[in-house]
Amino acid sequence: xxxxxxxxxxxxxxxxxxxxxxxxxxxxxxxxxxxxxxxxxxxxxxxxxxxxxxxxxxxxxxxxxxxxxxxxxxxxxxxxxxx
Length: 83
Prior knowledge:
Elements: E1 3-10, H1 14-29, E2 36-43, E3 46-53, H2 56-82
Antiparallel strand pairs: 1-3, 2-3
Helix pairs in contact: 1-2
């Protein structure tokens, strides 16, 4: 792998972190492409997203996809907490 990225995201609670991590688990287990792979780790109240890719185009696409998924799940959690 030639391109790497590391993203650390802090969440307001461990509950949010657990839910988001579980929601993304199927995506992490089976990467949709051979050009990149992602690893999710939890550290206290932070989600650590590690991406390895064969090139910067694949890195960018993978990062965008995971960050969008994380944002979507988090937005849903916020909406549910307001009800």
